[in-house]
Amino acid sequence: MKGSCSGITREHYRLADENQQKPTEMSESTAFRQMDEKHVSVDVHLMLWSPKFDLVALSNVQGEIIMAESLVSDSPGDDVKVTSLAWRPDGKVLAVSYSCGKINLYDIENTEVLHTIELQGQITSLTWINQAIPEGNTWSPEPYLEDDFSQFLPKLLPLSKSYSPLNTKGTASNTHILNHIDKIHTAAVSQDLRSLVIIAEVSHESADKSMFKILTYNTSLVASRDKELRMLALKCGQVASLIAYLQLTVQQMSESWEDILMEMDSKLLKFAQEKKATGSGTVSNDFLELLLFGIPSLELKSFLLHELTDKGLKKLGISIETSYTNIQKLVINHLQVVSQSLLYHLSELRGMSQWYDRFGVLGMSTKHIQEAVTAVGSFVLKTSELQQVIDDSIKNFKAFFCWLYVAILQLSDEKVPAELSKMTQHDINFVAQFLTDNFDHFSVDEEDSISELTEKRSGFKLEKVGQYLKKEDLHYPPHISANPWIQVMRSSLHIRDSDIVYPVKSSSSLVQLQESVEEIIKSALTQPSIVIGQSLSCISSIDLFTKDKSEENFRMKSCQFTCNEKKVVYTVFTSSPAPCDKFYILRQPTCSKGASLQTQGVSVRIGQLTHDTNHDDSSDQTLQP
């Protein structure tokens, strides 16, 4: 379709009279009627009607999505095309797949991306499964209860920033049952969930040809465990959303931490350069001498009075304290809450997996899920550890800035407020600890030049906090050997090896444990897809037609839908390049018995609907079961 999109509504479709001999004299009442016409500036690639609303979704050759004459989404990248569209049965969400392997779910109300999934390889078919309920019946989760986790878990607070959504990576192991297939053009699951019907392109005995087949797979495991599969899917969806929230929280913590480094670097880098140029020691030595003897070096005195100043110190202190507070809030209000929620849902999945004949048959492994629970438990302990480190760092930071502010006032011969003039031994220890933890690293090697110092991204290091946000072991792990609980754990193998006791990963950073949690959870929750895939069995294979591989521009047009009342699946497809005047309709039962023998088909030629026994069309294809 090029240049325009005709808005012909379904209720106005009319087929020409079968017995009409002169199409040019066809009456207006029996012809197709064009109701409207919309012009678009770019060639339309795909279009799909909403199942509930008078709305059509379009994708153009530039990879853009358009609905109701409004641009919904740009292409996610250069040369990335839309490969398939699928409406949710209620018409409120549109699923869009791209050639890069990405799937976006769009809310049609505000066009926001609800969720993103990334798979390996190009996506060629996208179908939203809709389970039909027998007439007169209502769906019920019995014998199970609806998940009421909202009564037990606190609501996740919205994050102040928005980043890329969660990416769920696909694995090649999930497609091993179809490894003889070159390409899947369409796929549909029957509304009773008993069969999967796909149109596939497979290798032909002739190397220069491709064979198109319709394959039917028995999905009785999905049909017999539909309620269990729904519960599992909802739980996995909750876990995926929580992992995405966890990723964004850690990302914002890292950004707040980097803000502190930039603030300190902006003030102290010039001073460090001067110290390097004169070769008169380091930044940390000057501050320690001021703390111990009360006498600053000439360089430090000049820096405090003319570069930093008391007003500049106040501003810097407020900025750094704000960043510290942001990290602390992210840990308490977001990180700990989401990790505890994640632990709750995984614990429920562990309980479900122990009911083997209901959930275990779907591939839920108690062993793998227990490993995920243990990993998240260790992560929860690490968040509490980080919170304590942040509390200590804020205490040291405030003591340092208070001491430095008093020192600047004294050097300026200004009056020091009475509440700031008194400094206890604890305060001195806090200041010394702050200098040791941070300024010890604000230096360069002797062979480094001033230009090399300037090129360094950061000299100031918040090691006590920042080490938790790096993908490496902690340089300053907490001292836990004197902890009574740790001593009990080490002395009792029975307690230490218990599933209900979470190990303390004292040397691992928060980011390391986060990556470990994501990998272990992914491994545990991909098992059902593997088991369900292995349970599929091909019960029917029908040859449709062959094509030369040299026809690179050939793009098969097809669609599939089911009729639950008659327990059949309909497949409509074309075998010639568009535009063409003929299409095929196949009807197959959803039951697994004799699917290939009961398959019925008909070819329809537009413009020649009358039955002509003398017509000989060499292009007609015989369907071979």
Automatic annotation (TrEMBL):
BP GO annotations: anaphase-promoting complex-dependent catabolic process; cell division; protein K11-linked ubiquitination
Gene3D superfamilies: YVTN repeat-like/Quinoprotein amine dehydrogenase
Keywords: Cell cycle, Cell division, Mitosis, Ubl conjugation pathway
Organism from which the protein derives: Mytilus coruscus
InterPro entries in the cross-refs: APC4, Apc4-like_WD40_dom, APC4_long_dom, WD40/YVTN_repeat-like_dom_sf, WD40_repeat_dom_sf
Name of the protein in its database record: Anaphase-promoting complex subunit 4
SUPFAM superfamilies: WD40 repeat-like
Residue span(s) of domain Anaphase-promoting complex subunit 4 long: 214-414
Listed GO CC annotations: anaphase-promoting complex; nuclear periphery
Domain of life: Eukaryota
Entry keyword Cell division: yes
Anaphase-promoting complex subunit 4-like WD40 domain sequence ranges: 47-130
